[in-house]
Give the backbone structure.
Amino acid sequence: MTQYLIRRLLIAIPSLLGISVILFTVLALAPGDPFEELATNPAIPPEVRMQLRASLGLDDPIHMRYFAWLTSMLRGEWGFSFVSRIDVDQLIMQRLPTTLLVIGTSQIVALAVALPVGVLAGTRPYSTFDKVANTLAFVGFSLPTFFTGLLFILFFSVYLGWLPFVYRTNIAGSGLPWVWEHIKQMIMPVMVLGLFQGAALVRFVRSAVLDVIRLDYVTTARSKGLAERRVVMKHVVRNALIPVVTLIALQMPIVFGGAIVTEQIFRVPGIGSLLISAILSNDTPVIMAVTFVFSCLVIFFNLMADVLYGWLDPRISYR
Amino acid sequence: MAGSTPASATASAPAVDAGHGAGTTPAGASARPRVSPWEEAWRRFRKHRLAVASAVVLSFIILAVLVGPLFWTVAIDEIDFRARLQGPSFAHPLGTDDLGQDLLARMLYGGRISLAVGFAAMLVAVLLGTLIGSLAGMASGPVDAALMWLTDLFLSLPELPLLLLVIYLFREPLRQVVGPEMGVFILIVGVIGGFRWMPVARLVRAQFFSLREKEFVEAARALGASTPRLVLHHILPNALGPVIVAATIDIAAAIIAESTLSFLGLGFPPDVPTWGRLLFDAKDNLDFAPHWALFPGLAIFFTVLTINFVGDGLRDALDPRRVI
Amino acid sequence: MTEDDLRQLIGRVKRGSLSRRGFIRRMAAVGLTAPMATQILAVAGAAPAMAQSVPAYRPTRAGGGGALKILYWQASTLLNPHFAVGTTNQDSSRVFYEPLAGWAADGTLHPILAAEIPSVDNGGLSADGRSVTWKLKRGVKWHDGQDFSADDVIFNYEYARNPAVASTSSGSYRDVNVTKVDDHTVKVEFAQPNPFWADAFVASVGMLIPKHLFKDFAGSNARDAPTNLRPVGTGPYKFTSFAPGDLLRGERNENYHLPNRPFFDTMEIKGGGDAVSAARAVLQTADYDYAWNLQVEDEILKRLEAAGRGKVNVIEGGAIEFIQLNATDPTREVDGERAHISTEHPAFRDPAVRRAIALLLDRKSIEEFIYGRGGPATGNFLNNPPRFRSPNMPMEFNVDRANQVLDQAGWVRGRDGVRAKDGVRLRFVYQTSVNAPRQRTQQILQQAARRAGIELELKSVTASVFFSSDVANPDTFGKFFADMQMYTTTMPQADPQRFMNQYVSWEVSQKANSWQGRNIVRWRSADYDAAFRAAEGELDVVKRAALFIRMNDLIVGSNHVIPVVMRPTVSGSLNTLRPAISGWDLTMWLLSDWYREG
């Protein structure tokens, strides 16, 4: 087991390098540059634009740009953003708390709702509860977040006037009112994201429970006279968790990566909105930094999932 | 009714065995008149009322988008400024948009594309994901590591730059080979499918890890089953639960993703009214002209809902352990 | 009326023997609009004092106005005006930094850090047009208490033109020579007589940064200046905090150089989101005071305004949405270059086809049903300031006439309804950036064209690709590898010289200049070139205006360029807010004069 872990961690280094090469190549080859707005402005001569490109090194060959990036990365320098000309790590650090707070909360909400609902729905298939939960789940993933977000705004902000729909990082005050203001502005983005992610999760949990609950050992456990609660918790859920763990491991990196559409709708200054504006303006250093951290998290959490499989089902061997 | 070994799934999945016919009919059934497993499945499916109703609704939706335009012959792009943002009426059963274009005609026309994209992209994602997941789950060591590296890579690639790159590299060549519309369709399906197989692959692989150690697999192996046979007949059918769920979610995701793509210039041209695009165009008018968003939203919702219930029904009908 | 007559009349107004009203009436008699007549008077120096070009400011003391909350759907990313790549960054910088002068809503100059606007009368402008002398306002202090002086102005000149700094404003400084006359006077010299003298140190490119904080960072280390992120300027508000891409905050500058200003105690600019929800936050829920650049269909704005809390401000500028018909052939490659300048577009070389497309554009409906107040239909490429607007370009929407024109030119409908002649079919690719009103406009033209036997294939490219200067991508507007395209070009100064160089032959966008040339439609005309050259050195304002009008008529008359609608700046503000906005300068150009009533 330990040997397996060490081996996987060692493999992770070349895989990260490989991923970074491919990321960089894709970014370098993808069309666009950071000077969209300069182009339609007649006051800015084209030579100025060309000179700016050259000063940012955009006209150098790709492999040279990559090695420049890699060497500074190895020294712990993340480079500076083309559009704001400040260091990338500073930009990311400014956004990390909000991202973790909003996206993290929504993931917790999604999990906290989806797991029990999915298990309950799976243990009582085709009951009224199951039908209601399913229908809500279908609404959740058949409506895009840009739509549910707007629906929430119209209802809670415009019609009822209860919740603000512009996320503010500079709320003044302290104590409970301050906390309450923060909670108020988080409710809508968290609900929108939680609904969307929770909906899919409910379906997966329900399906996993259904797969297990019909197995004979569950019947055996029941016929032994175990309490239903114990049967479900100890025998069903644990065995149903393998796909669920996989999905959660796939979701976790998003806590760092942010949710682009939702952040945009509610003006949450998270990493998702940083990434999308960086992408739209081809701000390579920012995109590289965010996606690179993101891929580290992807690799790490997927590795965690692999380790957890063995704990959930001891028969799984690591070969 | 299946084997008595605890914690084992069924010895083999009926859906697959059914195709091979003989020898799988349980002994207890021989007293009754012989029913083929397919007839049995159909009998079970019919008892599942939600699934039957969903199948009817789904067929209706598909039929409507296929032949509907033959009966509702209003042009999809007839601009009529006098009839802007009108609610449902006799002339326009689903109302009009902000250029006075008939929404029913647009929904029927766009539905074909949305459904085709949804199903095709789902198939690409699920087939690719299942293939890679089962390969990784069966083979271990370097092959597994390489395939998971590929999965991690795709998970961490930012979609937008890659999409822009894909358009830039492939739009013109594809257009020249298969024509503009088919070219766009292939691109969209490829892109959406190509970006959604990773969860499926990881789910299938995880299931394989667990299943390949189970007794019934070992039993089959001891009986001399080849690896392909083991995978196709014994492991894969038992690993399909999460795949089916992923497939139904992917259809909805693909229909919605198509609308996002057109905003990158990758999707269908702006004059093609797919469902996702109608929903997007309508969103800013939600408080003044709710009908514009309501109908495409409902169309996507009912498609997803019915596909899911049909999926549930099939799964129950094909699972011999469940007695209905 | 000849030019001499006009001059005599202006002279009479100046001497007082003819009233301004009488002058305008006489101008109207010869077909000049009232605004144009006023403009002629203004530029000839016979206009009333400048003060009227900005709205009156009523508060009688500084401060006490509470918080001013502004919403931008694009967020600013940096606060050094010399690095700003777009108006959002320039606007944020403008809160703290000020230029010598700005452009008022009527296209006249308004002094900010200058003591007065240079003119021939006050000796600021030399008679030969080769230099301009700016007198600086005295007693102005930077936010940190240091004095503002001519040294700062000279420093900005050197900073902006230094290639190592890589500033975006360098274009305005590299061809001029700036010298210090005394501590409060600078002189800008030009190599040639230059009627377009109000560029360096004016408006968006003219914001001045303090020498004492930037002097150690005036080279390739410009990026490292700590003041880049903590601006110290002379503006009405002092810097409080900044999160790039999100929020900018400022507080009242107690030592501002104008009396009773500013009104608000604090101000903030929140960035991000989308235009429609920004409009909602001001007009519908009144959470914010002001929303910038509401590029939203007017129908939606009107319904939001119905809530009665805020109103929409429409301010005219020079930006225009227009269609280009490629003069070269985008399908043929010559020397490995598509749309090579030696080729001719197979269909658009026939003036009848171009005229037909212009006839098929239903500008009135596009204005009425799509852009509304945000897009008045126009037949001119050059619309503002009004003295440059041509009266000669009618706009007509007439499908029958278009059919007639094509019939006469021998374009015959084929079996599929598409016209053709000599094997050339009237089937065109019509591209634009992804933007809801643009896609609507595309559909309206597509439908009208179909009725005249012209088939349009619509294509939309995401804006970040369409407007990029990326040499490798075929879909940029600069390459224009399509038959037709549509976008908005902006006019950042109230002077058309930079604006009208888009059609001179030496600016043709091609491989040789990495497709960075400004003449994207690749139309060439010796007449146009000559008119432009003449205007560049013409110091007589009336003659110069006539030259620009002629250029407009040449390019629009060729129908290679079809104007669609003007794009005034549209913003939203609460009913109680009194913003001072100009279509010729940044949104924040006179933030000092914003206040709240009631």
